[in-house]
TrEMBL record:
This is Type II secretory pathway ATPase GspE/PulE or T4P pilus assembly pathway ATPase PilB. Belongs to the GSP E family. Residues 157-188 form a coiled coil. GO terms for molecular function: ATP binding; ATP hydrolysis activity. It comes from Nitrosomonas communis.
Length: 596
């Protein structure tokens, strides 16, 4: 809706969220303004400002101390005011101030001028809640309504705390879980986590009367959110179990489920839920937010020029095996889907096997793994080979059978991609060989391996300074730490240092070739941490002839590492230092994720 575009321009909510709100309001037959306030936590004042900007009149917020203008209201009945949506609220020297929901419509009808012909009319605008509250204030039958974030977390908690003194045994969990305030609270927690950009929600109950802690994981770190009275901890867990159709009576075993949040609120996301029994007969809950979104284009994935060129060359091959490796939560699936987006054309048939399906793309045929139904990665891979694929993506190669099928598929004319849980690209080769893969078939099939980590990105509040000689020397030492094993570096280390520094000053320096580094500061935007978002660090190993020879000889990791460096591979730490010099992150974050 054009009226609310101002909210998008002010970054109060995104265009996608506004579209979701509009769709939800249509489906439920409710007012869009109510949906924005109740489900997207948009404050009435923010909506009022958007209305004022659209209608080009003053926004008039609700005031509980507003004095009723008896003289101008004496001939206006409440029913008339409510049905026509305008209300005189003040007489000033400038004219009669009229509160409306749609100033343009009221002006066009000229009804206000007919009733008050001797007055200059000053039109103002407000939200529907504020209009109703003002009508209630002037005509009685109510004292107005709480408008300042009516669904705030503090209000919800205060209502729950009213029952905090109740005995835990007195609360029936199933009925308590369906209570309106608790339902709103769970929805609010999920909505806030999504709006804050959190990846996970942790519910951590404690024995006795100690409160249940709720924490969000954002940018890789956990942060406290709220604490909930102990008397409601069981009902809270039960409510979440009900949302994902888990057994509410089973508390001794871990359970897994999925919440389709669209069933409960106008936000089109899914949550993967895990419940785990913890000490004291309690249950912890962890929810992973799986927000559907468009894959990121490869050009926006922060690849270096060399890595992007090499990667595009690798994935343009008609057949072969390509891996993305890294620990859990390092963005492997995101990267694979960006690659698939690059390859997704009408001429290409792409099958994916995922557990779970986190990102959806048009044109992809995506299969959800279901072990209970016998749908494992290996069985799906066998089916893919009979389904005329061009490209196959496997969420994870966990066992020998799946990996063997992947190699077989790549050697019979298919491009196969998969993820691995390994620390570096060369280590991935050894892991696959240790699974019992034939070194000759594997070396023939392998195209490349991309290792990845996520480092915290500096917030815009970062503080610049000209890098000192000592800082440059430290960065050079760390950058060249792994190059010391290759022949051309050992031949003349000093010349190698100078060459790398000269490149840095040329690429990242100012007109005087001085390099600017940045320091984390902290502001309201980043909650005082100095960091906002994350950036990927990459290590791309290309399967050159020399590396394939290493694989066939079952060489050690160290030997493969030296071969890869000699062939031009940039390590995770080197890529991180390049991003430090670009001002994207700092060396502390690079060191934190590049621990060996």
């Amino acid at each position: 809706m054009i009226i609310y575009d101002h909210l998008i321009s002010k970054a109060t909510l995104s265009a996608a969220e506004l579209e979701q709100a509009v769709r939800y309001a249509r489906e439920k037959g409710c007012d869009l303004e109510e949906v924005l306030i109740d489900y997207f936590q948009i404050k009435p004042a923010q909506i009022g400002e958007a209305l004022a900007y659209y209608f080009q009149v003053r926004y008039e917020p609700y005031r509980v101390d507003r004095i009723k203008p008896f003289e101008v209201l004496k001939n206006l009945k409440r029913d008339f005011v409510e049905s026509n949506h305008w209300l005189p609220i003040d007489e000033t020297k400038e004219g009669l101030v009229v509160l409306t929901l749609d100033p343009e419509r009221i002006k066009a009808l000229r009804i206000v001028n007919q009733i008050f012909p001797k007055h200059t009319i000053i039109y103002t605008v407000c939200t529907q809640r504020e209009f109703k509250a003002t009508v209630d204030l002037f005509y009685g039958n109510g004292k107005g309504i709480a408008l300042e974030d009516s669904g705030s977390i503090d209000e919800m908690l205060s209502k729950l705390k009213e029952n905090e003194e109740a005995s835990l045994d007195e609360i029936d969990e199933a009925s308590a879980a369906s209570e309106n305030e608790l339902v709103k609270l769970v929805n609010k927690i999920i909505m806030d986590a999504y709006k804050m950009g959190a990846s996970d929600i942790h519910l951590e109950p404690y024995p006795g009367k100690e409160k249940t802690k709720v924490r969000f994981r954002k940018d890789g770190s956990l942060m406290p959110y709220i604490e909930i009275p102990a008397s409601h901890r069981n009902a809270l867990v039960t409510r979440i179990k009900i949302m994902c159709d888990l057994d509410i009576s089973e508390k001794r075993k871990p359970q897994d489920g999925k919440i389709k949040f669209r069933r409960f609120a106008p936000l089109d996301i899914e949550l993967r839920v895990a419940t785990l029994p913890s000490a004291g007969g309690l249950e912890d809950v962890v929810m992973r937010i799986l927000s559907a979104g468009e894959p990121i284009p490869l050009e926006k994935m922060n690849f270096t020029v060399r890595n992007l060129r090499e990667l595009k060359s690798i994935i343009s091959k008609p057949y072969g095996l390509f891996f993305v490796c890294g620990p859990t939560g390092s963005g492997k699936t995101t990267t694979l889907h960006s690659i698939l987006k690059h390859l997704n054309t009408p001429e290409t048939k792409i099958w994916t096997a995922e557990d779970p399906v986190e990102i959806t793309q048009k044109g992809l045929r995506q299969v959800q793994i279901n072990v209970k139904a016998g749908l494992t990665f290996a069985t799906v891979m066998k089916s893919f080979l009979r389904a005329d694929p061009d490209i196959i993506m496997v969420g994870e190669m966990r066992d020998r059978e799946t990996t063997s099928l992947g190699i077989e598929a790549s050697l019979t004319g298919h491009l196969v991609m998969a993820t691995l849980h390994t620390n570096s690209a060369p280590e991935s080769v050894i892991r696959l060989l240790d699974m019992g893969m034939d070194p000759f078939n594997f070396s023939d099939a392998l195209l490349g391996i991309l290792a990845q980590r996520l480092a915290k990105r500096l917030c815009q509040c970062k503080k610049p300074h000209i890098a000192s000689r000592e800082e440059i020397s430290t960065l050079l030492m760390e950058y060249c730490e792994e190059l010391k094993h290759i022949e051309h570096f050992k031949a003349d280390p000093e010349a190698a240092y100078q060459k790398i520094e000269a490149r840095w000053r040329q690429e990242y320096g100012d007109e005087h070739q001085q390099i600017t580094l940045y320091q984390a500061v902290g502001c309201d935007q980043c909650n005082g941490t100095g960091y906002s978002g994350r950036v990927a660090l990459h290590e791309l190993l290309t399967a050159t002839d020399a590396l394939k020879k290493n694989i066939q000889e079952h060489a050690r990791v160290a030997d493969m590492f030296v071969t890869a460096l000699t062939d031009g591979m940039c390590t995770l730490k080197q890529d991180g230092i390049d991003k430090v010099l670009q001002g994207i992150t700092d060396i502390h974050q690079v060191r934190a994720v590049c621990i060996k």
